[in-house]
Design brief:
Helix content is 25%, strand content 24%. With 275 residues, it is α+β, with helices and mostly antiparallel strands. The longest helix has 28 residues, at 49-76. The two termini are 29 Å apart.
Length: 275
């Protein structure tokens, strides 16, 4: 709109000068002034070139204000849920670890990270190498209610399942809530469970991280089994093992969270920026 006014400004200025000379008004070039040159408007009233230009400048300023208001309105209604698709990366920051914790060797314990390490990073637990993917990806989108759920692309930490699968489920969910929830962007957090896993095809990288990891769902109380995902992406079950396996946090982002565009996260993934 502003460009259009500028174009009109130039055209009208040219017309005004043309009118002045075409009307037979003779001024020496050094005496020509926008205040002294006048012409008759359509309504019959006289106006000067300066007055006409001032009106145009005022209108152009109002257009600037209108554009700013339109941009603000767009920003207020640019919801993340309207733009993202399942599997997209989101530049969510879960923070950094404030302590060192070796891979757990006792049942019911967490670990496998170092102080200052990003919680968005993937670590190795059961295998010698960790998941290739890091950061956070969209797990589900509720466009009607503007709610986006994201999942860690790999596994940020390890857990050693104990003798009580019910207790492990509680521990996993509580630990995720207390460890990965960033209140600026998220409303709740929990560990990935069997239903989450089965909502994704086993060959999809959202599910298959090429590592073993626990699911926060009890398989068998008698034999202390929890469901898990194996290296091929299949759903299995296991009891307390001789080694720790990973787990995957799931974050429910705040309702109507805004998006500011695309960029890259700390791992170089093309990711949506949020605010």
């Amino acid at each position: 709109m502003k460009r259009l006014f500028k174009q009109k400004y130039g055209v009208i200025l040219g017309l005004l000068i043309g009118i002045v000379f075409m009307g037979g008004v003779s001024y020496a070039v050094d005496n020509l002034s926008s205040e002294s040159v006048s012409y008759k408007k359509k309504d019959g009233n006289l106006t000067t070139v300066k007055q006409a230009l001032d009106e145009l400048i005022t209108k152009s300023s109002k257009v600037d204000e209108l554009e700013e208001k339109v941009n603000d309105f767009k920003k207020l209604n640019t919801y993340l849920a309207d733009y993202v698709s399942i599997g997209d990366y989101i530049d969510y920051d879960a923070g950094t670890w404030t302590d060192n914790a070796e891979k757990p060797t006792k049942q019911g314990n967490f670990g496998g990270h170092i102080q200052g390490q990003s919680k968005n990073t993937s670590v190795a637990c059961f295998e010698t190498t960790g998941p290739k993917l890091q950061g956070w990806r969209v797990l589900s989108v509720d466009k009607d209610n503007k709610i986006v759920t994201i999942i860690h692309a790999g596994q940020p930490e390890c857990y050693y399942h104990g003798d009580d699968p019910n207790n492990s489920v509680i521990k996993l969910n509580e630990h995720v809530q207390n460890t990965y929830l960033n209140p600026l962007y998220a409303s709740s957090a929990r560990a990935m469970n069997k239903n989450d896993a089965e909502s994704i095809n086993k060959d999809n990288t959202l599910r298959n991280t090429e590592t073993n990891y626990w699911l926060a769902t009890v398989y068998d109380n008698t034999n202390n089994y929890l469901y898990n995902i194996n290296v091929g992406g299949g759903v299995g079950r296991s009891s307390n093992d001789i080694r720790a396996s990973g787990y995957r946090p799931i974050i429910t982002l705040k309702t109507k969270l805004l998006v500011t565009g695309k960029g890259t996260d700390e791992f170089g993934n093309t990711a949506w920026k949020i605010e």
